[in-house]
Amino acid sequence: MARELDTRQLIERSIIRKYREVLWHPFIDAVNKYRLISKDDRVAVCISGGKDSMLLAKLMQELEKHGNVPFSNRFLVMDPGYSEANRKKLEENASILGIPVEIYPSNIFDVAYSQEKGGCYLCAKMRRGWLYNKAKSLGCNKIALGHHFDDVIETTVMSMFYSSQIRAMLPKLQSDHYEGMELIRPLYKVHESDIQSWARYHHLEFLQCACRFTDYSSEEAGGSKRQEIKQLIRRMKKETPDIDQSIFNSIHSVQLDTMPGYEAKGEKHTFLEN
Predict the structure, then answer these.
(1) Is residue 269 part of a domain?
(2) What CATH number does residue 128 fall under?
(3) Domain range spanning residue 169?
(4) Where are the beta strands (DSSP E) in 35-159?
């Protein structure tokens, strides 16, 4: 008689079977192509409670169990001041997924939103610094964030439209302020629509935004510039289905010789130098 699988086991099986081509394979491809994990790494997987960081945690857990390179994970949650509903939902999802989260309190929401020029940008900056500090204190040498394929291309388009720059999001980078620490993005090649499909398949409800002013059922957190770009790309895909992949490919094949100006290591250069 076949043994009935519990929810956690069904979720793990779906990653390796049903969603193998769209979740597991692009995850492994990014880890290998960008050399994100090395032997004896100690990775702090940073969990906000959203679908992206929760899937990242599960993928990293599976990689630690079954991968060829020995490394270890710590599943780190920074509680910036969650509402009771958000905190409860995060803990419930971690239990369902079998993720042994470590939750540490902070007052980042209070500080960020008390500043005249606070809000989302300051909150994100403070959260990043806190995560680096805590990860280093726990003996980790890397932090893993849940940015995915769509975040990468949206950031590229946003920089062109709103910052007058051609700027991408790297799959990994060394920290300038925390010696020996590196940030990695293992979901770099995973599409958001596939993460959403996986969550719906298992009837999982994740936090849409960690902000205390939203609850886990909120669908779209605000009308941000990122949401505008997301909708623009969505509309363009109807005419040109591969346009998102073209944007992604373009940041891997920049023709520097055609650029009238560029910046490298903080120094500005012009084509006239050559």
Answers:
(1) no
(2) 3.40.50.620
(3) 7-255
(4) 42-47, 72-79, 101-105, 142-144
Query: pLDDT tens digits, residue range 86-127?
Result: 999 999 999 999 999 999 988 777 676 666 665 566 677 778
For residue 264, is it within any domain?
no
| 177 DSSP 8-state letter | S
Q: How many domains does the chain have?
A: 1
Angle among Cα 123, 126, 129 to the nearest 5 degrees reads 150
CB burial readout 216-238, b (16+ within 10 A) else e: beeeebeeeebeebbeebeeeee
141 phi, psi to nearest 5 deg: -115, -5
Burial of 159-179, coded b for 16+ CB within 10 Å and e otherwise, reads: eeeeeeeeebbebbeebeebe
pTM: 0.90
Pull the structure tokens for residue 181: 């620490």
